[in-house]
Write a structure and sequence with these properties.
Blueprint: E1 4-6, E2 11-15, H1 26-32, E3 37-40, H2 58-71, E4 77-82, H3 84-95, E5 100-106, H4 117-124, H5 126-148, H6 152-168, H7 173-185, H8 188-194, E6 199-203, H9 214-218, H10 220-223, E7 228-231, H11 239-242, H12 244-266
Parallel strand pairs: 2-3, 2-4, 4-5, 5-6, 6-7
Antiparallel strand pairs: 1-3
Helix pairs in contact: 1-12, 2-3, 3-8, 4-5, 4-7
Length: about 270
């Protein structure tokens, strides 16, 4: 499996979202690599992942986390999942508590999230509805970005960089549709109740996240004992890309404070 590694320090695994490619998260990876040893990878059904294992369930994607840790001789690490990747990270934390030093969920679909009728149609015929999906994604991007970057020059610069990433690491509507159906088939509530490590739930402004329901994301704080919640202002679902340093600052503070004190108390 192709593994991306940046920085030095305590290990931190970043699990990408439904796009499946680690390149979409390079900004937050680089920001976190200033203080951590960051590992990441593309989801297993992406050709660039070079993954030989199955890719038909959340468990299969969680196996990639274990494989990444094993390949570097790492016993345990903080596991951070973004959006769909949050569900993979959640599954790993529930399944392998001894290897999960901390869990960080960023804008993850809530435990009761399900496909709308419109998106259900998309996932059953992605080749037919791809233009409509792309148009909807562009609208959501614009609504969020114009708030984050009030100056036109900054907005255009970000959009240009975003489109460059899309060209270099294109997502597949077929694979994204299959991952969306996997979410519905997976019981996130059971996994959340099984998590025993320090947990941080991060989300953007409810009025700017046009992908998942922020209240659903926050619901994990009622299912995971001791979980903390952090709001990133002036951003929505794409905060990991629009405000990567703010995300890195919050994660750094959580790992340096709550996690170390928790492990110290246990010791």
């Amino acid at each position: 499996m192709q593994i991306i590694e940046r920085g030095q320090g305590d290990p931190l695994v970043i699990v990408p979202g439904i796009q499946g490619r680690w390149e979409w998260f390079h900004a937050v990876i680089n920001a976190l690599a200033e203080t951590h040893r960051v590992l990441s990878f593309s989801l297993g059904d992406e050709p660039s992942a070079q993954w030989a294992g199955p890719t038909d369930s959340v468990d299969a994607y969680a196996d990639q986390i274990a494989a990444a840790l094993d390949s570097r001789g790492i016993v345990s690490a903080a596991i951070c999942g973004v959006s769909f990747g949050g569900l993979v990270a959640l599954r790993f934390a529930a399944r392998a508590p001894e290897r999960t030093r901390a869990l960080i969920l960023i804008s993850a679909p809530g435990p009761d999230w399900h496909l709308s009728q419109k998106h259900e149609r998309y996932t059953r015929a992605p080749w037919l509805f791809a233009p409509f999906f792309a148009l909807g994604a562009a609208r959501r991007l614009h609504r969020e970005v114009r708030v984050v970057f009030p100056k036109l020059r900054e907005e255009l610069s970000f959009i240009a960089a975003y489109l460059t990433t899309a060209a270099r690491a294109p997502g597949s509507v077929f694979r994204m549709a299959r991952r969306a159906r996997i979410i519905t088939a997976h019981n996130r509530g059971i996994d959340a109740a099984a998590v025993a490590c320090p947990t941080l739930i991060v989300h953007g402004d409810p009025s700017l996240d046009h992908v998942v329901d922020v209240h659903g994301t926050r619901h994990y704080s009622r299912l995971i004992r001791g979980a903390k919640v952090s709001l990133i202002e002036r951003t929505g679902h794409l905060g990991f890309a629009t405000r990567p340093r703010e995300f890195a600052r919050i994660i750094d503070r959580f790992l340096a404070g709550d996690v170390q004190s928790s492990h110290g108390s246990a010791a």
